[in-house]
Write the structure tokens for this entry.
Amino acid sequence: MAQFIDRRLNGKNKSAVNRQKFIRRFKSQIKKAVTDAMSDRSITDLERGEKINIPARDISEPVFGHGPGGRREGVHPGNTDFISGDRFSRPPGGGGGRGGKASNSGEGEDEFSFELSREEFLDLFFEDLELPDLVKTQLAKQVRFKMVRAGHTSSGVPANLNVIRSMKKSIGRRIATQSPYRRRLREAEEELARLLLSESETSPRVIALREEIARLKARIAAIPFIDTFDLRYNNRIKQPQPTTQAVMFCLMDVSGSMDESKKDMAKRFFTLLYLFLTRNYERVELVFIRHHTIAKEVDEEEFFYSRETGGTVVSSALQLMYDIIKERYSTSDWNIYGAQASDGDNWTDDSPVCRDILINAIMPCVQYYAYVEITEESHQGLWREYLTVKRACPSFAMQHITGPADIYPVFRKLFQKKAA
Amino acid sequence: MARQVLSETSEWTFDLLNDYHREIARVAAHYKLDTYPNQIEVITAEQMMDAYSYVGMPVGYTHWSFGKQFLSVEQRYRRGHMGLAYEIVINSNPCIAYLMEENTMMMQALVIAHASYGHNSFFKGNYLFRTWTDAESIVDYLLFARNYIAECEQRYGADEVEAVLDSCHALMSYGVDRYKRPARLSLEEEQKRRVEREEYLQSRINDLWRTLPILGKGMEKQAEEHFPAEPQENLLYFIEKNAPLLEPWQREIVRIVRKMAQYFYPQRQTQVMNEGWATFWHYTILNRMYEEGLLSDGFMIEFLQSHTNVVYQPPYDSKYYSGINPYALGFAMMSDIRRICEHPTEEDKQWFPDLADSDWVKSLDFAMRNFKDESFVAQYLSPKLIRDLKLFAVLDDEADNQLEISAIHDERGYQYIRQALAEQYNLSTREPNIQIYNVNRRGDRSLTLRHLQNNRRPLNDDADEVLKHLARLWGFTVRMETVHEDGEVEMTHECRKG
């Protein structure tokens, strides 16, 4: 006799540990794929996982087997017009005497692809940034929801039962379903009263009427006082917790000296700031400003991928930022953040101008302003002027960056402030 | 006698499963199928994917390769490239079969007939399974293996354990003694004997290496003693017993992988028979139930649709062709044996004098018990079936720049095709014949393997990688010599170490 066992409620993630082992084992390949994926993504696009392709060769498990060549014989079905002794050249692609065996092995052999979940993806992305774990959890957490009332539903848990609504329904239903019987009952009773004036108790019509009245009363009594059909429950739905809005200004120097690797570093810096902001604000707008000698507001695509040459006047970008703030983002409605990436080059006479714009115009408006200087050379005028700004304004952060691991310290204070 | 059909809709319930199972068991008993008791588990699609990635073990140790398997199954399933197999069955006592929640009632009945009666009776009856696997203790052993490996990871680090497992997996198909009957395994004994074995082995290995060269006059001339005395085909066993530098726990892991290899060894050799047998029985049992009036017409049509999908054999020039479908060949052969027993033609009487007009249930049972794919094809592939499948043989010789059709389904070709197809299922021609030939005990302790070439076929490109794994386990240089068919020996691969 067989035994049937219902295992459906048992855990289904038996393979989770093996999956983790797989990811750990091929971390370097997967990370490369993550980095590539990141450079193709927009910096706002962090809410999904990623399909990862890694070369199948890297993860194959070798076993002894026969290579091509030698003499082999294969038996196949479905002969149509061969007769023994027929000779013909090797079909193309079968290659090197793989011969009769259908060459179906070509498919899927070069790439092994699978999905990384959003958490796994962010985890790998954060890895070189050397974020403390606390920050990682803060960043990776999903949007917070609040339960709000949203009318009533006909199904729910007993705790949410709305008694008043349910009773209203019950009364309505009872009135509706009883009314034909009640009408007939009223008529019968009136008729009985009339009959009793003229006839005695024992007359057959009186007995028949009395029976009908009894039957109708039973019918009325049989209609339930409350039915599952009447029940109404308070309905609650999830609503994203309303938080205030923020705007993030991305400023980048696009003069000839900013090469691809510097831009990539800048992109990571902007991405990280964006992530911080999306965790704290429901709505984050981005403004991209790039500059060489003159500044221009552009979209993200142009911001990262087009390049120009020429000198550098940083103050042009700061001035544009200030103008945009005045025009579109009033400080009473918006939390404003600034992020600037540059290689530190600036036209010498311009640096004091930058300092003045920052201290007098921009810093009073913004919550936080972060500056990163991506360079291997020694600091120039801009850095020195910015040091003055830093002394004057507590919410100004600056950092000299040589690798991705240097990015996080810029945000230290920002994060601490939010966590407190 | 007209009976009530068991159910009309495609919904299943546990009560219905019980009803169907009762009837299937009754019909199976009528055909004298001898099975282990059944344990039938209902699982979800996700759980099926888990079961899948453990290559059909109910519990398994953790390793990244199972994760890789899982990811690829999941990916293909989600994209809809592949339906999940509707059954997984485990050779254990009681025999565990999985039913997927999403299946219709028809599918559940099909799986119960196919797995719990077809495969189950095959596991219990076939000589390879009887010899190489022990259904009583496999689940216990797997549990022991998983716990042991988890313990090793705790104690020696996950990376260390992973390295040993990787190397063992590379050699997994060389972990079986083909000509020796293995001892039975059981959880208690395993644990009891493990400690003793570790100590004993370690002492023996030291013994083996104690004959250090004492350089003296006349010593060089002494003919070098060959070790091992006979070439060894079971590479993992040899490593487990003789590798000089392995720690006791590493030997135990080698042993675990070797036992797994042994457990799966019969399955690799009986695919056609096993699937053919199970398919034949689900077909026969359900048809019988239909004749008895237990199944509705709708059920039968749905059933026949799945059944024909399973046994479809695309011809060689179809884009769906990927070799011979073991379900198709196995089912056709099993059905053909029944036909020969019941309605033999003159040709059949000539080819199968013993089979013609015998009791088909007995004859099939005999075939199931005493053969593996290779010998089964060699014994039972009939001329009629060769004609029906239009089989033909293609000879592909590297020395010849053209392919040649060596035989087709005609009078002259039957024997030839039967032999060629049997050879195609012969494990020793499918996999290269590699043996441990010599250990240099007096010099660099290097290990020499020999690849006995068959039909001039060389090793594949993985050979170097596999040798690296072997060298990791052995601890010293490993070489591979290829023995050509004319007896000439050539050193083809080497992995230096130490």
About this structure: Residues 432-495 of chain B form one domain. Chain B has four domains: 14-126+270-304, 138-208+225-269, 311-428, 432-495. The longest strand of chain B covers residues 433-439. Residues 214-222 of chain B have pLDDT under 50 and may be disordered.
